[in-house]
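Same chain as my last thread, 87 residues:
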Amino acid sequence: LPLVKSDGRVFITQTFQKRPSALMAAVKPLLKYITTIDFGQLTTEADLERIIAEAKVFEVLENKPIPGSVDNHLQTARMVILRPKKA
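reply #2:
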């Protein structure tokens, strides 16, 4: 990983959906036309786990809800800390 030192960390803070939602997947990208902010595509917790696993270069050090932030039956704001896998 040329952009991360061997002892470096990658921090991800994002709100993830707990399960897929066709309605939210359709609505979320359209919010940019109302708010002028592009929130991107809907990402579930399972999507994140799959993306990290498929990259095959990171070890997950921490993946937990952010205290005091969104955490309900639909979505959760998470702090994910990754480090490069040892060669």
